[in-house]
Design brief:
Blueprint: H1 7-23, H2 26-38, H3 57-69, E1 74-79, H4 86-103, H5 105-119, E2 121-129, E3 134-140, E4 145-147, E5 160-168, H6 169-178, E6 205-215, E7 218-225, E8 228-238, E9 243-247, H7 265-285, E10 289-293, H8 294-297, E11 310-312, E12 321-324, H9 331-348, H10 365-376, H11 380-404, E13 407-412, E14 415-420, H12 424-430, E15 432-437, H13 443-455, H14 462-468, H15 471-474
Parallel strand pairs: 10-11
Antiparallel strand pairs: 1-15, 2-3, 2-9, 4-5, 5-6, 6-7, 7-8, 10-12, 13-14
Helix pairs in contact: 3-5, 7-9, 11-12
Length: 475
């Protein structure tokens, strides 16, 4: 199958990718989910006389989801695939850990998990920085990544992947001229989608599309703008795409997943709307109204504005002034609001025990911990997908080491090793990479938890204490 690398064809592929995302409503969904997550839940509503309170139940629940899926630091092991490869696997692990530390990958991984929960997908793009001589990563929004086959979720099964970014057009011109590309003077500002000429943006930005595609030599890439090539096709030296892709909930027949927030937006709207009307009812009916007879006070009447006295002609109850009490707001309204919040959180799996709101009095410590562990079980699939996502990141880093490192010295616990990183690509394909929590069993964490439980006056039994404390610390 032929691969198109000219700007015209690549922008046609981009247009097809944009059309697919529009058909499934991805752009609107991401925009709405992000707004609801951060608390902008009344945007676009024209109701100037209505109070707009926000009872944001989504943010706390989604943050709990993200923290449960990405529990602390993530570690990994590399198992040898043949005799004599133990030293290489150890060196690769140490080198990859150094890459993650320098890149701040842990923070980016947490951001990816949050993005997947809110937007449906997360993408971590890996590249080699020749200036700093480092392997680095960047999170790309799912609205800016386009699979040429959007019905196939597997990254390695794609015949090509597009990444869309926006940059100042004069920088793109300079880069294209430096790379010897023809027609660099045709690069002009365009609209944010990259599908039309400049829409009058003051930033003067242009869309650049980087296309990764598979060839007989491996993964190649090309960068283009509208009307010109920014960087001609080049071989990356990789055998797998430098993109790790994470979906929150899988959707059959689509490369995009379903966000945790998407199905809960209607519930959030109902809760906010009911509470707003409840507040409005209290404002208009909870305070008494003063009614006075205009014929006795004159048209200048009663002001004192706060209560806004009402002037009428005629009898106000055999008095010049009377006070009218407003109607009571039904208690059912608040009951419905509370029920909606409780049921929504329960169906999400964000129970009181899981989120730390349980009343710990007279509750056994083991029961609290067991309840929290059980609450995390519905997220087991997302946890498994995240670990596979991290393992793919490790393999991509190995590939970049093979392509860019050459021979380097790696410091390990067993001493310094001179490693030929050209073998790292073999490890990426054949070695078993297993990811998990950095501390499956932390003695310090166990002791700290026990101290907090005892300090809170909870009934920790002797059996629980002996089961939790490591044997060598019991004495």
């Amino acid at each position: 199958m032929s691969v198109f690398t000219d700007p015209e064809h690549i922008f046609r592929e981009l247009a097809a990718g944009v059309a697919y995302k529009q058909r499934i409503g991805l752009f609107d969904t991401v925009r709405e989910n992000e707004a609801f997550f951060v608390g902008r839940q009344w945007e676009g509503l024209e109701a100037p006389d209505l109070e707009k309170p926000v009872l944001n139940i989504l943010k706390r629940a989604v943050c709990y989801f993200a923290a449960t899926v990405k529990k602390g630091a993530t570690a990994f092991t590399v198992k040898p695939w043949a005799d004599g490869t133990e030293g290489l696997c150890l060196a690769l692990r140490r080198a990859a850990e150094e890459v993650f530390e320098q890149d701040g990958t842990e923070t980016k991984l947490a951001d990816c998990v949050r993005a997947a929960a809110v937007d449906g997908d997360a993408c971590l793009y890996w590249y080699y920085d020749p200036v700093r001589e480092r392997i680095r990563s960047e999170r790309i929004r799912n609205t800016e990544v386009f699979f040429l086959n959007p019905y196939e979720p597997a990254v390695d099964a794609q015949r090509g992947i597009l990444i869309r970014t926006r940059r100042p057009y004069d920088e793109l011109r300079a880069e294209a001229a430096e790379n010897g590309a023809e027609g660099w003077e045709n690069i002009l500002p365009d609209d944010p989608a990259g599908l039309a000429p400049d829409a009058g943006e003051p930033e003067k930005l242009a869309t650049v599309v980087t296309k990764f595609f598979r060839t007989a030599e491996g993964i190649s890439a090309v960068s283009v703008a509208r009307g010109a090539t920014v960087r001609p096709p080049f071989c990356t030296g990789l055998t797998r795409y430098p993109i790790a892709w994470l979906r929150w909930d899988e959707v059959t027949g689509s490369c995009h997943g379903q966000a945790a927030v998407t199905g809960l937006v209607p519930n959030q709207i109902i809760i906010n709307k009911l509470f707003s009307m409840y507040v409005r009812s209290v404002e208009t009916n909870a305070f008494p109204k003063v009614v006075y007879d205009i014929t006795k006070f004159g048209r200048g009447g009663w002001t004192n504005r706060i209560g806004e006295a009402i002037g009428v002609y005629g009898d106000v109850g055999d008095c010049a002034v009377n006070v009218l009490r407003g109607g009571d707001t039904s208690a059912q309204v608040m009951q419905v609001i509370e029920s909606a919040i409780r049921l929504t959180r329960e169906t999400m799996g964000a129970t009181d025990a899981a989120m730390g709101s349980i009343n710990a009095e007279n509750t056994a410590a083991s029961a609290i911990l067991a309840s929290q562990r059980a609450s995390a079980e519905p997220l087991a699939l997302q946890r498994r997908a995240y670990l596979a996502f991290f393992e793919e990141c490790v393999r991509i880093v190995f590939e970049w080491m093979s392509a860019a490192y050459g021979v380097r010295t790696v410091r390990t616990d067993e001493g310094d090793l001179d490693v030929d990183f050209s073998l790292a690509a073999v490890a990426a394909d054949r070695a078993v990479v297993h990811a998990g929590d950095a501390a499956e069993w932390s003695e310090t964490g166990a002791l700290s938890t026990l101290k907090e439980l005892i300090a809170a006056g909870l009934p920790v039994t002797e059996e629980e204490l002996r089961a939790a404390v490591p044997e060598r610390l019991e004495a």
